[in-house]
C-alpha cells in the first residue's frame, strides 16, 4: 500500500473540541543526516528509538526501523540529542473515515500547529474543517528534524 | 550507564595465549558525532544498537546506552550505516579480578591492536601485563567511530 499524507497549517483552536485523544510527544535527534536519521521519542508512557532512511525518488516509501524503549531510557538519551528538542501535543481528530493528526508545538516552536491526514491516493477528496489552513505538504521547514534545528520562533 | 575504562595499545601477540574467549565483531555507525555516536554491532549471534557520548575531561568515563536487537535487524541497519564498517576479533584476557578486552582489527585497521580494562573508580590499580603498551585513553582517534571514517592504515 502506498501511503500519502498531506500536511496543513491549523488556523484556530476549535479542532480541540473535536479531538478524541491527545498525547504528549517529546522528541530529539541523535542524527539529522537524511540518509540515517536517529530519533528519540517519548510518546505518553512509552519511549522509542527510530532510524529513518531517505525517501525514495518518488517520495513514496522511506526506510524506518523502530524499537520500543522505556521512558527512563528515552529521557537519558534525549539529554544526548542535538540541541532543539521538540515538545508537542498530538490530537487525534476524526472526520468521517479520516483522522487528522494535529500537532500543537511548544517551546521554540510555540505558536505552530500543523495537521496531517493520510489519504489512499493523491487526488482523494478529504474533509476541510474550518480550522484547516494553507497546505504545507513537502515543505521541509515543517519537518520535525528541521523544526528542531531551526524552530518556528526563529523564522 | 557511565563506564570507567582505560585503553592501551598492545605491543605483542602474547596476549592470545592468555585469552579465554574470542568473538568476531562487525560494526558500523549511523552517527560518528563524538557527542552522540550511534553504533550498530553484530557480536557473535547477537545484534546491538548503542549510543555513546563523549568522554569527560579526563577521558576516563563515557556515557553508554545499549539495546539488544536481532542479528537480522542489525544486518538491515548496517546497510544504512556510514561507509567504513569495522571488523575485528575481541579477545577476553582475564587478569585476577580484571578482564582485558583486546581488539585485533582487520581491513583498513589491520595492524592495530588495543586493550581496554573497566575499572570501578578512576584511580583503581590495575594489572600491567608485558604486552600492554602506551595508554591512549580519551584519544578520540582510537574511538571505533573514528577508526571507521579515518582508519589506522590512513594515519
UniProtKB/TrEMBL annotation, chains A, B:
A Pfam cross-reference name: CYTH
Protein known as: CYTH domain-containing protein
Residues annotated as transmembrane: none
PANTHER family: SLR0698 PROTEIN
Domain of life the protein comes from: Bacteria
Domain CYTH: 1-149
Source species: Neptunitalea chrysea
Amino acid at each position: 500500500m502506498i501511503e500519502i499524507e498531506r500536511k496543513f497549517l491549523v488556523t484556530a483552536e476549535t479542532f480541540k473540541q473535536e479531538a478524541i485523544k491527545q498525547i504528549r510527544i517529546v522528541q530529539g535527534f541523535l542524527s539529522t543526516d537524511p540518509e540515517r536519521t536517529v530519533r528519540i521519542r517519548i510518546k505518553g508512557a512509552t519511549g522509542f528509538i527510530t532510524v529513518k532512511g531517505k525517501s525514495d525518488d518518488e517520495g513514496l516509501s522511506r526506510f524506518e526501523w523502530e524499537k520500543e524503549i522505556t521512558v527512563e531510557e528515552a529521557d537519558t538519551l534525549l539529554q544526548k540529542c542535538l540541541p532543539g528538542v521538540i515538545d508537542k501535543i498530538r490530537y487525534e481528530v476524526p472526520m468521517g473515515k479520516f483522522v487528522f493528526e494535529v500537532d500543537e508545538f511548544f517551546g521554540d516552536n510555540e505558536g505552530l500547529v500543523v495537521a496531517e491526514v493520510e489519504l489512499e491516493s493523491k487526488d482523494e477528496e478529504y474533509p476541510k474543517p474550518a480550522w484547516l489552513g494553507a497546505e504545507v505538504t513537502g515543505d521541509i521547514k515543517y519537518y520535525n528534524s528541521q523544526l528542531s534545528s531551526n524552530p518556528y520562533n526563529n523564522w
